[in-house]
């Protein structure tokens, strides 16, 4: 089965961490950057002066304004900047540019832009002449243009409009680098330069902790970072990762960590806290702890289930969220209806089912007719319909009991947890006494003799009696029509007759008188009855 990727495209909004490598506004003395041409040897050089930022704080700046001379090539180089492991460098520049059109008699060589360069080095080895002041070996980052330029002049001097531009470059691999700014015919002031790199910040998301991670070398780079599950959490499906892009932003999360069983996520998913007392969580899922169901409790914090209280139980198939249940009370109002050696029992369900819906009934049969003052379990010959155990309906038919015998029937109520209780099921009992059992029928009748209008039958084996009582045998003649068999004695119409015999004595049969119809086609039926 393929691994499931948990990709969540929404990550809590966090700001990229910016680590400053150099900030000109923090200088408490001269910046001391290197200029070309050398200051003093020409009026074309950049000049370091004191100025003010937009908040009127005193800062050190560099300015140049040689707009009336052609072919300007004025450079200023920062001091050596160590990269501190960064692969991509960002440069924030604040500057002002004079509008060429606001300068009287300015030649067409006036510019409102400047160039930004960088040069990598493993050590601070630059001199006034090295590296050479040209694009190669310097690497050009971009030509910087002002969004706004100033043109007004008041009594206090120039009214400046400060522009802010950010550029980045990489990858860088040496221990450090220099920055350089090239003027080629503008009137401008470099007010502030801040050099920094970006990191994706420390973050807890998807149940995992990700430490600060340096951004990639390119703006489109994605740097993979492995997360570590927060305490009491575990990874789900795949190793959890986040990717840090070139702007120091986390994106494309893969995988996740979930709080272990017995713990829940709190504080926006940044902490897995043990379930408090009285609560539980059975599995590792993104869900809160649940309160213990009725009749159960926990024994400690961080529970994965709740223990049933004394007298209450749970089956293996019961969900852990289900209340603990108990055994049912006894059935109510047992009613018996005796018919000779059988009985119908009916009852009402127990008043208390124990909180379950799987209540069934068992029948315990005891015979108390032994004359010894005790009762014994009924034999296997006793029949229960539909069955003796596990009755789902409150009724049962019991047959094949002994005649003239006292019985006690216990109707037990049980449910799914009865087998966990140390006590026997509760029951309701009823006492009954059976009546005389019915005799068996006379199975065979023999014809001894017959005449035209009579027949003399004799029964076969004597009918049996469960108690050994004597019985009488009787017979009866019934008439039935049979179109296939006819008898035509003189003066008689075609008919067929049958005789029925029954017992009414000590296994003897008296002569049965017959009406004057054909006896040759008569059949004998028999029965027995008590005198």
Automatic annotation (TrEMBL):
Residues in Fibronectin type-III domain copies: 327-437
Gene Ontology MF term list: ATP binding; transmembrane-ephrin receptor activity
Chief location category: membrane
Protein topology in the membrane: Single-pass type I membrane protein
Subcellular location: Cell membrane
Pfam families in the cross-refs: Ephrin_CRD, Ephrin_lbd, Ephrin_rec_like, fn3
Gene Ontology terms: biological process: axon guidance
Compositional bias of kind Low complexity: 465-486, 495-513
Keywords linked to the UniProt accession: ATP-binding, Cell membrane, Glycoprotein, Kinase, Membrane, Nucleotide-binding, Receptor, Repeat, Signal, Transferase, Transmembrane, Transmembrane helix, Tyrosine-protein kinase
One GO CC term on file: dendrite
Reaction(s) catalysed by this chain's protein: L-tyrosyl-[protein] + ATP = O-phospho-L-tyrosyl-[protein] + ADP + H(+)
Protein origin, superkingdom: Eukaryota
Region (Disordered): 452-531
Range of residues in the leader sequence: 1-16
InterPro entries according to UniProt: Ephrin_rcpt_lig-bd_dom, Ephrin_rcpt_TKs, FN3_dom, FN3_sf, Galactose-bd-like_sf, Growth_fac_rcpt_cys_sf, Ig-like_fold, Tyr-kin_ephrin_A/B_rcpt-like
Domain Eph LBD: 18-205
EC number(s) recorded for this UniProt protein: 2.7.10.1
Official protein name in the record: receptor protein-tyrosine kinase
């Amino acid at each position: 089965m393929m691994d499931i990727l948990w990709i969540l495209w929404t990550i809590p909004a966090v700001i990229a961490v910016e680590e400053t490598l150099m900030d000109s506004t923090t200088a408490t003395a001269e910046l001391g950057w290197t200029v070309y041409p050398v200051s003093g040897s020409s009026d074309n050089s950049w000049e370091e002066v004191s100025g003010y930022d937009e908040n009127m704080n005193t800062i050190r700046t560099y300015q140049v304004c040689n707009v009336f001379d052609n072919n300007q090539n004025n450079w200023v180089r920062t001091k050596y900047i160590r990269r501190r492991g960064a692969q991509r460098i960002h440069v924030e520049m604040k500057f002002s540019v004079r509008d060429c059109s606001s300068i009287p008699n300015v030649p067409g060589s006036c510019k409102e832009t400047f160039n930004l360069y960088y040069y990598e080095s493993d050590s601070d080895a630059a001199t006034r002449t090295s590296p050479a002041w040209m694009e190669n070996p310097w690497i050009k980052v971009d030509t910087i243009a002002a969004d706004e330029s100033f043109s007004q002049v008041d009594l206090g001097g120039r009214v400046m409009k400060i522009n802010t531009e950010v550029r980045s470059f990489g990858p860088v691999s040496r221990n450090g680098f220099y920055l350089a700014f090239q003027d080629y015919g503008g009137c401008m002031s470099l007010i502030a330069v801040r050099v920094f790199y970006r990191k994706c910040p420390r973050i807890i998301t998807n149940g995992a902790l990700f430490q600060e991670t340096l951004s990639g070398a390119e703006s489109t780079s994605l740097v993979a970072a492995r997360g570590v599950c927060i305490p009491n959490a575990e990874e789900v499906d795949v190793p959890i990762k986040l990717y840090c892009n070139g702007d120091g932003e986390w994106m494309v999360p893969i995988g996740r960590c979930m709080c272990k069983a017995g713990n829940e996520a709190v504080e926006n998913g940044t902490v897995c806290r043990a379930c408090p007392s009285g609560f539980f969580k059975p599995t590792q899922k993104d869900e809160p702890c649940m309160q213990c169901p009725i009749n159960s409790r926990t024994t400690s914090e961080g529970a994965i289930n709740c223990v049933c209280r004394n007298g209450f139980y749970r089956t293996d198939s019961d969900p852990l969220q289900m209340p603990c249940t108990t055994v049912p009370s006894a059935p109510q109002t047992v009613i018996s209806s005796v018919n000779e050696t059988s009985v119908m029992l009916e009852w009402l369900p127990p008043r208390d089912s124990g909180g379950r819906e799987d209540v069934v009934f068992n029948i315990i049969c005891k015979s108390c007719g032994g004359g010894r003052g005790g009762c014994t379990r009924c034999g296997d010959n006793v029949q229960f319909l539909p069955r003796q155990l596990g009755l789902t309906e409150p009724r049962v038919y019991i047959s094949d009991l002994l005649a003239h015998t006292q019985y006690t029937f216990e109707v037990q109520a049980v449910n799914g947890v009865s087998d966990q209780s140390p006590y026997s099921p509760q029951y309701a009992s009823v006492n009954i006494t059976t009546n005389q059992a019915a005799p068996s029928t006379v199975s065979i009748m023999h014809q001894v003799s017959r005449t035209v209008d009579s027949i003399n039958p004799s029964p076969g084996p004597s009918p049996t009696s469960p108690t050994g009582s004597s019985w009488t045998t009787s017979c009866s003649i019934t008439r039935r029509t049979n179109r296939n068999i006819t008898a035509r004695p003189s003066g008689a119409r075609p008919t067929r007759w049958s005789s029925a015999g029954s017992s009414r004595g000590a296994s003897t049969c008296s002569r049965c008188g017959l009406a004057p119809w054909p006896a040759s086609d008569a059949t004998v039926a028999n029965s027995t009855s008590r005198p």
